[in-house]
């Protein structure tokens, strides 16, 4: 007969300490990115007489790009 495989205990999960300063900086930078996207939408549609939906798409791309870079900076630590 085969020997039974011994039960392995799951390794304890290491808790990651979350720095409150980084969370506050992350939230503030996201708010700035959202305001920048809104200003970009208004500027593009007013200056270049582009349809507001097209300028919204451009502003959304700016917002997504900024959010990715900001999140990468804060989450990579």
Q: What features would you describe in this structure?
A:
It is a single chain. The protein has 77 residues and is mainly α. Helices cover 69% and strands 0% of the residues. The termini are far apart. The model has no long low-confidence stretch (mean pLDDT 78).
Supply the key terms.
single chain, 77 residues, mainly alpha
Summarize the structure.
With 77 residues, the chain is mostly helical. 69% of the residues lie in helices and 0% in strands. It contains two helices and no strands.
Give the SSE order as H and E letters: HH
Q: Can you give the mean pLDDT?
A: 78
Return residue spans where pLDDT drops below 50 for at least 5 consecutive residues: none
What oligomeric state best describes the polypeptide chains here? single chain
How many DSSP helices?
Answer: 2
Number of strands: 0
Structural class: mainly alpha
Largest beta-sheet details: none
Helical residue percent band: 55-70%
Give the N-to-C terminal Cα separation: 51 Å
**C-alpha-based Rg, rounded:** 23 Å
Topology overview:
Layout: H1 20-48, H2 52-75
Helix pairs in contact: 1-2
């Amino acid at each position: 007969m085969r020997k039974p495989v011994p039960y392995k205990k799951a390794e304890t999960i290491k808790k990651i300490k979350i720095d409150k300063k980084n969370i506050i900086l992350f939230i503030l930078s996201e708010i700035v990115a959202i305001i920048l996207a809104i200003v970009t939408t208004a500027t593009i549609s007013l200056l270049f007489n582009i349809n507001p939906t097209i300028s919204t798409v451009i502003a959304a791309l700016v917002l997504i790009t900024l959010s990715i870079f900001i999140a990468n900076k804060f989450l990579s630590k």
